[in-house]
Design a protein that fits this description.
By secondary structure, this protein is α/β, with parallel strands linked by helices. It contains 24 helices and 15 strands. The protein has helices at 3-18, 31-44, 65-73, 84-88, 100-109, 128-141, 175-190, 201-210, 216-230, 235-251, 271-279, 286-291, 309-320, 339-354, 365-368, 376-379, 382-396, 415-418, 434-447, 457-463, 469-485, 492-500, 505-508, 510-523; strands at residues 23-27, 48-53, 57-60, 114-119, 146-152, 165-167, 196-197, 232-233, 255-257, 298-303, 324-327, 357-361, 401-407, 425-429, 525-526. It has a seven-stranded mixed beta sheet with strand order 9-11-12-13-10-14-15, sandwiched between helices. Strands 3-2-4-5-1-6 form a six-stranded mixed beta sheet, with helices on both faces. It is elongated and about 90 Å long. The two termini are 54 Å apart.
């Protein structure tokens, strides 16, 4: 978190403290960082600070020398003088304050103006006595400058406390803070290890960019491990950090880094879609903003299965040379009420911190198909609230996150999701026409180290009428296996034989495909050139 972001958090917390907000919730895994911010805010408004944990009880909060130096380095007023007396008492817990319910009873009797930080209190929120005591404390604290701050990785608020609570979000560190963190970590590691410094200013900026999307603690840990492994800060360190970030995001089970190795050159046909994307290349850069443009929001790519929708989504990131992160739609749902909504907000926050990037949502209908008016009774309204959160983010976000969503059955999506203003465009991908099939055969043969000019591509493309791109790829692979078994190179006839032995999707699901085409005629932009529209040729 850079100085500007930190200022926003501290200013917001100062407002909450000065306005007698009784309970503030800070959901974060970065307890040390959150504690430091609370101390800075309390010092600025001349409030005492107390901390509670089940292990130590309630005690006055002191400021360590490390925190004092960090405050100074970031331009914040030091809390050392204000808390010198607190530091002396830091080892003395208030009598009979370890047990949560009793500690809250003690708080009711205190008259001192202060902030009371309760660590890991989410573990005690299922106790009805604790909830009742916290409600009593909150009601008394709402009339003067006393605030309870609940701090933990996940805090579920019971309904009876909702009117007393304000949430304070701790944003992820920006590039400026990460650049500062690199310098701090290099200095720290250099005290115990001799490090070679091989990165110039440009390399350090690239390293900071690759750490985006991580918390400060995660970024510092990934960087420390890379430095110790290489005994250097070098170009290899930049790569090591990327791999560590991929592993960290994967463990969160919601976002996954996907190598953006494809480009639109690897996609056969779809000229309209390619032209649309080409015209928006670089629209997230500063010069585009100065020109008066806003970054593109995203596209929905729908159509016949196996016609390259997912490939297109991946190829967008490769073509634009942007990071590609895939949203795991299955991992977003949580059994606890309210947690699903929190998870998707976390996805938004991480995606924005990685911007500019491409966020790939595969099979969009699996996330939002159940968001209609009848869904509330089925899942306690989770799907509807999830849709509302997504729509709000798509409409209001400022960060350049391009959403590339694919969909097999757009008819089940709620209409408010596909209207203009959320996604920039809705593209329909039909079965490839003759020219597109020829391109696909050319790409697939080159990928398998064969010279396309040695094949009669017009003939095989004609024979593949009604085949999807995936079915053409499968036919090429079948022909290759057959030729390998015969111990000879693959020929045009091998390709024709493989095609003859395949019943395409356009035959087995002809009615469904035609229905999808009819829907798309007036509602979507066709990704292929107009003369290929609806022909299946």
């Amino acid at each position: 978190m850079g100085q500007t972001d930190m200022a926003n958090v501290v200013d917001r917390l100062k407002v909450l403290l000065e306005s007698s907000t009784p309970i503030v919730v800070m959901e974060t895994v970065e307890e040390v960082r959150a504690l430091r911010l609370v101390r800075v805010a309390c010092s600025a408004v001349n409030l005492a600070t107390f901390e509670w944990s089940i292990a130590s009880g309630l005690m006055r909060s002191g400021t360590t020398s490390a925190e004092t130096s960090l405050e100074a380095s970031e331009g914040w007023p030091s809390t050392a003088n204000n808390n010198s007396h607190e530091a002396e008492q830091n080892t003395k817990a208030l009598y009979n304050s370890r047990e949560p319910a009793q500690m809250l009873a003690n708080l009711e009797g205190l008259t001192i103006e202060a902030a009371f930080i309760l660590k890991d209190f989410h573990r005690h929120m299922e106790d009805p006595v604790v909830v009742r005591r916290l409600r009593d404390v909150g009601q008394k604290f709402s009339t003067n400058r006393r605030t309870v701050i609940l701090m933990g990785p996940r805090v579920t608020i019971p309904p009876e406390l909702e009117s007393l609570v304000e949430f304070l979000e701790l944003p992820l560190p920006d590039r400026q803070r990460l650049r500062q963190l690199i310098d701090e970590t290099v200095v720290r590691v250099s005290k115990t290890h001799t490090l070679e410094r091989k990165l110039d200013g440009t390399g350090l900026e690239a390293l900071a960019e690759n750490l985006r999307g991580l918390t400060e603690e995660e970024a510092e840990r990934a960087l420390s491990q890379a430095l110790v492994a290489r005994y250097a800060i070098s170009t290899e360190t930049v790569t090591d950090v990327v791999e560590a970030k991929k592993a960290l995001l994967k463990r969160q089970e919601m976002l996954e880094f996907v190598p953006a190795t494809e480009s639109m050159a690897s996609v056969g046909g779809l000229d309209n879609l390619k032209q649309w994307l080409a015209r928006r290349q670089g629209a997230w850069e500063d010069k585009a903003r100065e020109f008066g443009l806003e970054p593109p929001r995203g596209v929905i790519i729908l159509g016949v299965q196996g016609c390259g929708k997912s490939l297109c989504a991946r190829a967008v990131a490769g073509e634009w040379q942007l990071p590609l992160v895939k949203f795991d739609t299955a991992a977003i749902y949580d059994k606890f009420i309210g947690e699903t909504e929190k998870r998707i907000q976390k996805v938004f926050k991480v995606a924005e911190s990685l911007s500019p990037c491409v966020l790939w949502i595969d099979e969009l209908e699996k996330v939002f198909a159940g968001s209609g008016p009848d869904s509330a009774s089925a899942d306690a309204g989770v799907s509807s609230r999830l849709l509302a959160s997504f729509l709000s983010w798509m409409q209001e976000r400022k960060a350049p996150v391009f959403v590339a969503a694919t969909c097999n059955n757009v008819t089940v999506l709620p209409p408010e999701l596909i209207r203009k203003g959320r996604f920039d465009e809705l593209f329909f991908v039909d079965l490839p026409n003759q020219s597109e099939r020829k391109q696909i055969f050319d790409i697939q043969l080159k990928r398998r180290k064969r010279n396309p000019s040695e094949f009669d591509l017009d003939r095989v493309a004609s024979a593949a009428r009604g085949f999807s791109g995936a079915e053409i790829e499968s036919a090429v692979q079948t022909a290759m296996f057959g030729a390998f078994a015969k111990k000879q190179d693959v020929t045009t006839q091998d390709l024709l034989t493989a095609l003859e032995g395949t019943v395409p999707l356009s035959t087995t699901r002809a009615e469904e495909i035609q229905e999808l085409r009819e829907w798309a005629k007036e509602r979507a932009v066709w990704a292929s050139v107009p003369e290929g529209r609806g022909e299946g040729a």
